[in-house]
Amino acid sequence: MKLPPLEYACPTTLSEAVALLASRDGEAKAIAGGQSLMPMLAFRLAAPTLLVDLRKLPDMREIKVSAEGIRLGAMVRWRDIEKDARLTSAHPLLKAAVAHVAHYQIRNRGTIGGSVAHADPAAEIPGVVVTCDGEIAVTGTSGSRVIQAADFFRGALTTALEPDEIITEIRLPAWPARRSWGFQEFARRRGDFAMAAAALFYDQDAGGKATNAHVGIIGVGDQPRRLPEVEAVLNGRTIDEETIARAAEVTSATVDAQEDIHATAPYRRALAGTMVERALQSACP
Ligand SMILES: Cc1cc2nc3c(=O)[nH]c(=O)nc-3n(C[C@H](O)[C@H](O)[C@H](O)COP(=O)(O)OP(=O)(O)OC[C@H]3O[C@@H](n4cnc5c(N)ncnc54)[C@H](O)[C@@H]3O)c2cc1C
Fold this sequence. Notes:
This protein has about 280 residues and is α+β, with helices and mostly antiparallel strands. The chain has helices at about 15-20, 35-40, 80-85, 85-90, 90-100, 105, 110-120, 125-130, 150, 230-235, 240-255, 265-280; strands at about 5-10, 30, 50-55, 65, 70-75, 135-140, 145-150, 155, 160, 165-175, 180-185, 195-205, 210-220, 225. The relative contact order is 0.12.
């Protein structure tokens, strides 16, 4: 289908972009890479009267790595992350997850800000941002604010963003050198959205026991979530076969799963347990 009739603007400053979004009473939409929004327009799942193109906004394409953590401008594309050699050590979990995002044509255009704003429950990076206790910096007509990832995602395709707000940056806390991590995904084909995925990490105390375990599940419920019950299984224990089996069991028992055309809820719960099991087995410093 062709797009619905709409107007188009390509502002060069953030304040102009925010003012344009605010000018239509919720009927204007930002466009970044267009890889999710264009299909939604074509299928009439969204029908804004104005598209506000973010591609000329300054300072939103940079990846900053420092001792405090990582700052990804909202217009950073999947390909930029893939190519950035610093991230291999500065955030291996992010890099591993991006390798599963879409196909290379889409990775050349799709942006991290667009993915976080779109909030597809099966998208990899919202899950990584939640797992890592990331932050989302946004600017709107009433100023700038920083939203914790756990408060940002409110359900499938639903976030805490106001209609006049633009995501400017995604922030991830610093990644210690010896952290153990794993990312495992099950999708029908490589590059498809996850049917279920697990993103996790843990640190180790002097005795080799896991501390600070973070376990996130993607594509199973209506939004990415951490699983505190599974983290409690890992913290204070050696990550051996017995602990991994217990973590997988608790994942399947506690995860909130949804049914859709691809899978039943019980299948997704079982798959989530398997993803956690495999992610723990592959976790390496
Ligand atoms: C065939 C196909 C397969 C795909 N597979 C995957 C996959 O496996 N995993 C995955 O994660 N994604 C996948 N995607 C989606 C892809 O990663 C998109 O790039 C991404 O979800 C959206 O990024 P975008 O820059 O294209 O955003 P757009 O499509 O431009 O925008 C998406 C939404 O975000 C809003 N938005 C965009 N930027 C901002 C901003 N800075 N501030 C506020 N709102 C903003 C828009 O208004 C819109 O509502 C796939 C897409 C296609 C077409």
